[in-house]
């Protein structure tokens, strides 16, 4: 049973499940999925707008989150004017600005060079530890294993091994 605060989420209607995702989950996509016509701050504000948070409150929270991910000087830049690492940090800011309890990240370092990838992973690790966010990540990047609290290794859709804080256990 998949539950959240004692509620079986597999029993939710489509509308309830959509609402659950909106209120509790932030998404970081492999391809950033930023809107090219919007600035960095507007891309982040969009996540708040979907939750009904608008105006100066949305602007202030978005600016603060971009500063938090090290992009305070890039808030008015469009995605075309940002590096891959900066685009990914905008995507992370957008995922985190509404303060979700869970962040789902799909290959967050795939399009990044080694230095940018490490910076993004360090940022996610700090945010998870400091803000109490659970980060669920899918990746092929073996460097992630060193900073993950636990891992599950899949091969051809089958669980091959699990590891919790460095100890390996047989498949479940």
List the helices and strands and how they pair.
Layout: E1 3-4, E2 7-8, H1 14-24, E3 25-28, H2 40-49, H3 55-68, H4 84-96, E4 102-106, H5 114-131, E5 134-138, E6 150-155, E7 158-164, E8 167-169
Parallel strand pairs: 3-4, 4-5
Antiparallel strand pairs: 1-2, 6-7, 7-8
Helix pairs in contact: 2-3, 2-4, 3-4, 4-5
Please describe what this structure looks like.
The structure is a single chain. By secondary structure, the protein is α/β, with parallel strands linked by helices. Helix content is 38%, strand content 20%. The protein contains five helices and eight strands. It has helices at residues 14-24, 40-49, 55-68, 84-96, 114-131; strands at residues 3-4, 7-8, 25-28, 102-106, 134-138, 150-155, 158-164, 167-169. A three-stranded parallel sheet has the order 3-4-5. A three-stranded antiparallel sheet has the order 6-7-8, with no helix packed on it. Strands 1-2 form a two-stranded antiparallel sheet. Strand 1 (3-4) and strand 2 form a beta hairpin. Helix 4 (84-96) packs parallel to helix 5. It starts with a strand and ends with a strand.
**Helix percentage range:** 25-40%
Q: Per the principal axes of the C-alpha atoms, what is the gross shape?
A: globular
Strand order of the largest sheet: 3-4-5
Percent strand: 15-25%
Structural class: alpha/beta
Q: What is the chain-wise order of helices and strands?
A: EEHEHHHEHEEEE
- The helix count comes to 5
Largest sheet: 3 strands, parallel
Q: Over all CA atoms, what is the radius of gyration?
A: 17 Å
Number of strands: 8
Q: For the terminal residues, how far apart are their CA atoms? A: 16 Å
């Amino acid at each position: 049973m998949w539950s959240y605060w004692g509620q079986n989420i597999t029993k939710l209607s489509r509308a309830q499940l959509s609402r659950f995702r909106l209120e509790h989950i932030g998404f970081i996509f492999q391809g950033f999925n930023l809107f090219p016509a919007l600035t960095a701050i507007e891309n982040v504000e969009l996540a708040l707008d979907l939750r009904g948070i608008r105006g100066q409150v949305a602007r202030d929270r978005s600016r603060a989150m971009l500063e938090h991910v090290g992009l305070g000087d890039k808030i008015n830049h469009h995605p075309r004017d940002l590096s891959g690492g900066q685009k990914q940090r905008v995507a992370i800011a957008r995922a985190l600005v509404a303060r979700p309890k869970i962040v789902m990240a799909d290959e967050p370092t795939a399009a990044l060079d080694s230095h940018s990838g490490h910076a993004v992973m360090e940022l996610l690790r700090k945010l998870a530890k400091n803000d109490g966010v659970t980060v669920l990540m899918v990746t092929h990047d073996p460097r992630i294993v060193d900073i993950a609290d636990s891992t599950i290794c899949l091969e051809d859709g089958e669980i091959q091994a699990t590891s919790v804080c460095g100890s390996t256990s047989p498949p479940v």
